[in-house]
Structure formats: C-alpha cells, structure tokens
Design brief:
Layout lengths: L6 H12 L10 H13 L4 H28 L4 H24 L15
Helix pairs in contact: 1-2, 1-3, 1-4, 2-3, 3-4
Length: 116
C-alpha cells in the first residue's frame, strides 16, 4: 500500500467518501455513490478501491444501525440514537474525505466489513 499517489487517485478516494451526500437527493445514494466509484475504479487504483470499499462498508453499517434505531424508536430510545448516528456519520465521512485527499489509508470505526 505504498507508492506515489496521483492527485486524481486522491480526488477519487475523497469522492468515494463525500459522494454519500448524494443520499440526500437520491434514495440509497449514500450506498450507490461509493459502490459505483469502487466498481468503476477498482481495477485502475488500489487506493481508490480501498476507499470505495471502506466507504461502502461504513454506509452499509450505518444503514443497519439506523434501521435498528428506528425500530428502537418505538420504545422511545431510538430517537436519540438516530440523531447521534446522523452526526457520527457526518463527522466520520468528512474526516475520511479529508484523509483520503491527503493520501492516507483511512479506516472507519464501528464498521462491519462486508466487502473485503
């Protein structure tokens, strides 16, 4: 995982994370954006493939956590969890995007690694 990264690779790595904001306009855009970037760029760059998979795994995990929180909302404790997860997702995605643009191999916390 070493070597000289091109500016384009760093940009695509960053977009793999920040592309999740498309989920505000497109249903499941938070999962579709990193999936598309990973699928299109995985054979061109190990760096972009890594960030695409990392972002995709994190967004799938967050989606699962949100579903559980919505179910728990029926018990009135899920409302707080939904807000906490929303802020956590926002902060982690921004951090990951910055680190990817800086050429770092960022790994999200609390992520279930579905795609290896």
């Amino acid at each position: 995982m070493t070597g000289q990264l091109q500016k384009e690779e760093k940009t695509w790595g960053m977009l793999a994370h920040l592309g999740i904001f498309s989920g505000h306009f497109i249903p499941f855009g938070n999962i579709i954006a990193p999936l598309v970037i990973w699928m299109v760029k995985k054979d061109e760059s190990d760096y972009v493939a890594y960030h695409g998979k990392e972002s995709l795994n994190f967004q799938i995990s967050i989606t699962i956590y949100l579903i559980i929180s919505v179910i728990l909302a029926l018990l009135l404790i899920g409302f707080i969890l939904v807000g906490v997860l929303w802020v956590f997702n926002l902060v982690m995605v921004i951090i990951a995007g910055i680190k990817a643009n800086d050429g770092e191999w960022y790994r999200y916390p609390l992520t279930i690694r579905f795609i290896k």
